[in-house]
TrEMBL record:
This is Cytochrome P450. Keywords: Heme, Iron, Membrane, Metal-binding, Monooxygenase, Oxidoreductase, Transmembrane, Transmembrane helix. Heme binds at C464. GO terms for molecular function: heme binding; iron ion binding; monooxygenase activity; oxidoreductase activity, acting on paired donors, with incorporation or reduction of molecular oxygen. GO terms for biological process: sesquiterpene biosynthetic process. Pfam families: p450. Belongs to the cytochrome P450 family. The keyword Ion transport does not apply. Its cofactor is heme. The chain crosses the membrane at residues 31-48. InterPro entries: CYP450_71D, Cyt_P450, Cyt_P450_CS, Cyt_P450_E_grp-I, Cyt_P450_sf. It comes from Lactuca sativa.
């Protein structure tokens, strides 16, 4: 699964001469369609685009000069969006007003101002912008990740944080994690001495953990479900032309993307229905709980205690968040961590030494013991600093007029925090671009949302609720990969030549999958 799962504005590079080098892309949109569509847009631009974007009386932040129709999209050409925006911020300041297609957005690129978004104005900026995809796929945006702020959203966020993904609940899934990590280790063992690409197996492992935690050990339709979620991910990455040009709704229709999404939605919906029906019968018959996430949600739904009653469709939307949000983020963190370890042999040696000394002579590593792996945790933090899976987090939308750094942020304005720029800001980090896990040994900087120079999981009300779920799988897999195996690069590659390029798109996945050769290390 190599595509963007968190939607972010994306455009196909080849399809659009004037934004031909845009890196915010991955979709397979038909070239003819885009040419025709944009000729139409150009023709009707002056007729259709009469609306003023912002009142003259507002004191908006400065920003780069804009072109008609595309606004500032061309200035993001030739670089990943997080890099392009960081470079623009160096010139125009840590708070910029930009026009991304028809969408007016504020870009925040410094930890000082990120604090104004996440703390001072967290409530005013707690909503998400409308997204056609979330509307179609997530049952009218009735999910947690893309749902607009309000009573319903607050209720659902509380459920997902307290009942579904709390540290205590995540611990109850340790059996599933152990099984799946064991399978991964078995696979690696079977490939010893041969170069192997780990990405697909690691993604499958995370997928299976998510699936089993959600629907129990024997989710019959697991493979189809995962295939559809993957397909959804591929489409998500291409859907956002429609969100960049929301006034031209016909784009999503004539591109065929809307109908593809609706097809996947229908199939996913049917699979969820089948799983739900089977579970309802089981619950009626046995009356006993499986303890998985579906059972938790059914129990809450049936308890009648909710202020705003929920439907099966609302539950499906939450599961889509868990599947889509919980898979690629963790899988790519494992791949980046291994890549950095291969690129920095001293760090690999130190991390392996820690794991091997901590578990000396043990045949099995239990999750509880992972707490002792202090250096490995620093390695993971440093990986998330340099390779945050969502470098621009998820966009927020202003719901109450507020100010940042003296500038007006009007209602409906999209606000994007460049978490990557904050994480490599030289004012906050020494030797900011280098991979040095040791920096976390001496400091108490954490990713729990209070250190605004390090927010790979976001911060404030919209912060990721899946930190525990994600990190436990990442730590468990990495610890065992380092414990049981020594790793080599293919003979023609030296560490400093490893390709560190990221793929285009809103998610920072490695462009070329890491290839490594495992050799069995006997800890006994
Ligand atoms: C390495 C692993 C992960 C990373 C780096 C990550 C990162 C993020 C980020 C950056 C956001 C947006 C925060 C913001 O807008 O301020 C987010 C939101 C979210 N994540 Fe994660 N995530 C990870 C794992 C997970 C897992 C395992 C799950 C579920 C099982 C999950 C579920 C969600 C949900 C539901 C939201 C929406 C929260 C909201 O809008 O209130 N994530 N995540």
């Amino acid at each position: 699964m190599q595509n963007c799962k968190y939607p972010f504005p994306t455009i196909n590079r080849q399809s659009f001469p004037f934004i031909s080098k845009l890196q915010i892309t991955t979709m397979d949109v038909d070239i003819t369609f885009l040419l025709v569509a944009f000729s139409l847009i150009l023709s009707f631009y002056f007729i259709l685009n009469k609306k003023p974007t912002a009142s003259k009386s507002l004191n908006l932040p400065p920003g780069p000069p804009k072109l008609p129709i595309i606004g500032n999209l061309h200035q993001m050409a030739g670089a990943l969006p997080q890099h392009a925006l960081r470079d623009l911020a160096k010139k125009y300041g840590p708070i910029m007003h930009m026009q991304l297609g028809q969408v007016s957005a504020i870009i925040v690129s410094s930890p000082r101002l990120a604090k104004d978004v996440f703390k001072t104005n967290d409530l005013a900026l707690a909503s998400r912008p409308y997204s056609l995809l979330a509307d179609i796929m997530l049952y009218g945006s009735s999910d947690v990740a893309f749902g607009p702020y309000g009573d319903y959203w607050r209720q659902m966020k509380k459920i997902i944080t307290v009942e579904l993904l709390s540290a205590k609940k995540v611990r109850t899934f340790s059996g599933f994690r152990e099984q799946e990590v064991d399978h991964l280790i078995e696979f690696i063992r079977s490939t010893c001495g041969k170069p192997v690409i780990l990405r697909d197996k690691v993604t499958k492992m995370i997928n299976n953990i998510v699936c089993k935690s959600s629907f129990g050990g024997n989710c019959k339709q697991q493979d189809v479900l995962l295939e559809l979620v993957e397909e959804l991910g591929r489409l998500v990455s291409g859907f956002y032309v429609a969100d960049l040009f929301p006034e031209y709704g016909f784009l999503s229709v004539i591109s065929g993307l809307k109908s593809k999404l609706m097809k996947i939605h229908k199939r996913l919906d049917k699979i969820f229905d089948d799983i739900f029906e089977e579970r309802k019968i089981k619950r009626q018959r046995n009356g006993e709980s499986e303890g998985d996430l579906l059972d938790v949600l059914f129990t809450i739904k049936e308890s009648g205690s909710l202020q705003i009653p929920i439907t099966d469709n609302n539950i499906k939307a939450v599961f889509e968040n868990i599947f889509v949000g919980g898979t690629d983020t963790s899988a790519m963190t494992i791949e980046w961590a291994m890549t950095e370890l291969m690129r920095n042999p001293n760090v690999m040696e130190k991390a392996q030494k820690e794991v091997r000394e901590t578990f000396k002579g043990k045949k099995k590593i239990s999750e509880i013991e992972l707490a002792d792996l202090v250096y490995l945790k620093c390695v993971i933090k440093e990986t998330l600093r340099l390779h945050p899976p969502l470098p621009l987090l998820l966009p927020r939308e202003c719901r109450e007029h507020c100010q940042i750094d003296g500038y007006d942020i009007p209602v409906k304005m999209k606000v994007i925090v460049n978490a990557f720029a904050c994480a490599v800001d030289p004012e906050y980090w020494d030797d900011a671009e280098s991979f040095k896990p040791e920096r976390f040994e001496m400091s108490c900087i954490d990713f729990m949302g209070t250190n605004f120079e390090f927010v790979p999981f976001g911060s404030g009300r919209r912060m990721c609720p899946g930190i525990n779920f994600g990190l436990t799988s990442i730590e468990s897999a990495l610890a065992q990969m380092l414990y049981y195996f020594n790793w080599k690069l293919p003979s023609e590659i030296i560490p400093k030549d490893i390709d560190m390029t990221e793929k285009d798109g809103g998610v920072a996945i490695k462009k070329v999958p890491l290839m490594v050769t495992p050799n069995l290390y006997s800890p006994f």
